[in-house]
């Protein structure tokens, strides 16, 4: 019996080794996957208010065999991810946005975190980084319009640029002033880089001093220069901006190669988004046969992005998504009796206080969705408006994303698209 057992050991070891070394077993280390995802669309493109990147991380080391794509990570979607043995969930919308003070079984978002950690599933959200990316959500949305050229409505700035500091300060020092003392003083200020060169002003040889500095250092530089009236009066202060990225940013302004009627464009959009209905506000003096040449689009919450854009048509989401979230939260408070202190008494009529339940500080502080009054303002200017529900302008992008990520990640991992993910609102 003993000798038989000893003969089996090498076989078992050999089997384990073959599983590890088998090239057909595709997986990626979590850190390598995160690096590749950032190469695909840098998180630096995301808006400052957003919560992007790795939100839930299992204890290391963590390898990923199956990446699961969804627009919204709900409990139903989490159940699907568990059934399909996902190791990594890429949720376009961040399931965690505001800080969580405790992890209990009380709320659905806390339960998502618990289920993810218990089952060693990482959760990652790109959100507005994918909105801004050249191959991202807004470019996908623009594809439904037909052949067109597009540019970002609000271009992103380059995340890195060789120039140091936020401001540039320039001034001249003439021969009667102590150049060495000036240079020594400004070089002694933290976060300051200094260069100097010869300059001729009013037929007088002078030294031009140029320095880059941070906002904090600027105040010290100005305080020093203000002590010398001649220097201070000829000082120039420039604000340094990083260069704009021509194909990256929020929203898209799309110019069609050929003008089409509004009716034709509506059908194209419905076909692209796979919707049977959209909501339309005709601009003043417009009809369904009016020609459309320029379209401003913004997936999701686009009101503040589109505001002021010169176009024949605005395509974005309506305000029902956030209204639904507010309503859902108010219903939760009502059922659990967990009323925030700013709530009116429970005896108040539910419908009357529901819209006031969630204060502005609790909502996303980024772009807002198009409201009733936003639509009226646009229509009064002759701009047609097409509204779809929030995630209907985003969810279809995931199919393109799956294909693009498969190529970018060289098919090293399985990529699955959620079947349970859907917009919470339906037209009935």
Report a brief summary of the structure.
With 428 residues, this protein is an alpha/beta fold. The protein is 34% helix and 24% strand. The chain contains 15 helices and 19 strands.
Fold and architecture overview:
With 428 residues, the protein is an alpha/beta fold. It has three domains: 28-129 and 406-417, NIF3 (NGG1p interacting factor 3)-like (Udp-n-acetylmuramoylalanyl-d-glutamate--2,6- Diaminopimelate Ligase, Chain: A, domain 1); 133-156 and 247-325 and 367-389, 3-Layer(aba) Sandwich (Udp-n-acetylmuramoylalanyl-d-glutamate--2,6- Diaminopimelate Ligase, Chain: A, domain 1); 167-239, Alpha-Beta Plaits. The protein has 15 helices and 19 strands. The strands form five sheets. A six-stranded mixed sheet has the order 7-14-16-17-18-15, with helices on both faces. A hairpin with a 2-residue loop joins strand 10 and strand 11. It is globular and about 80 Å long. Keywords: Acetylation, Cytoplasm, Metal-binding, Nucleus, Phosphoprotein. It is found in: Cytoplasm; Nucleus. InterPro entries: DUF34/NIF3, DUF34/NIF3_animal, DUF34/NIF3_sf. GO terms for molecular function: metal ion binding. Homodimer. Interacts with COPS2. Interacts with THOC7.
């Amino acid at each position: 019996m003993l000798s038989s057992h000893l003969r089996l050991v090498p076989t078992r070891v050999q089997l384990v080794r073959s599983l590890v070394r088998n090239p057909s077993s595709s997986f990626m280390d979590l850190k390598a996957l995160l690096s590749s995802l950032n190469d695909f669309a840098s998180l630096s493109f995301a808006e400052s208010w957003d919560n992007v990147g790795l939100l839930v991380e299992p204890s290391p080391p963590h390898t990923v065999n199956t990446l699961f794509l969804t627009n919204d990570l709900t409990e139903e979607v989490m159940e699907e991810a568990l059934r399909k043995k996902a190791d990594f969930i890429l949720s376009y919308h961040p399931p965690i946005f505001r800080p969580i003070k405790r992890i209990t079984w009380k709320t659905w978002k806390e339960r998502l975190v618990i289920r993810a950690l218990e089952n060693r599933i990482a959760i990652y959200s790109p959100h507005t980084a994918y909105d801004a990316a050249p191959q991202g959500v807004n470019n996908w949305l623009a594809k439904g319009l037909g052949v067109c050229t597009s540019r970002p409505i609000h271009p992103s700035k380059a995340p890195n640029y060789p120039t140091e500091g936020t401001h540039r300060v320039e001034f001249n020092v003439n021969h009667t002033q102590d150049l060495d003392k000036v240079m020594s003083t400004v070089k002694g200020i933290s976060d300051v880089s200094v260069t100097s060169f010869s300059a001729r002003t009013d037929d007088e040889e002078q030294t031009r001093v140029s320095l880059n500095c941070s906002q904090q250092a600027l105040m010290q530089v100005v305080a020093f220069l203000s002590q010398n009236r001649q220097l201070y009066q000829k000082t120039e202060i420039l604000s340094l901006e990083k260069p704009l990225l021509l194909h990256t940013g929020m929203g898209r302004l799309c110019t069609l190669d050929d003008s089409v009627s509004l009716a034709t464009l509506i059908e194209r959009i419905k076909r692209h988004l796979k919707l049977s209905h959209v909501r339309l506000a005709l601009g003043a003096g417009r009809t369904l046969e009016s020609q459309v040449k320029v379209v401003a689009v913004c997936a999701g919450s686009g009101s503040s992005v589109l505001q002021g854009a010169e176009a024949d048509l605005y395509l974005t989401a309506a305000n029902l998504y956030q209204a639904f979230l507010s309503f859902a939260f108010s219903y939760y408070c009502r059922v659990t009796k967990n009323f925030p202190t700013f709530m009116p008494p429970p005896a108040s009529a539910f419908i009357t206080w529901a819209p006031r339940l969630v204060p502005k500080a609790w909502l996303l502080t980024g772009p807002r969705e198009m409201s009733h009054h936003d639509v009226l303002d646009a229509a009064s200017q002759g701009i047609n408006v097409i509204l779809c529900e929030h995630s209907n302008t985003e969810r279809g992008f995931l199919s393109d994303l799956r294909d693009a990520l498969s190529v970018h990640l060289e098919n090293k991992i399985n990529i699955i698209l959620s079947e349970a993910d859907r917009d919470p609102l339906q037209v009935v």
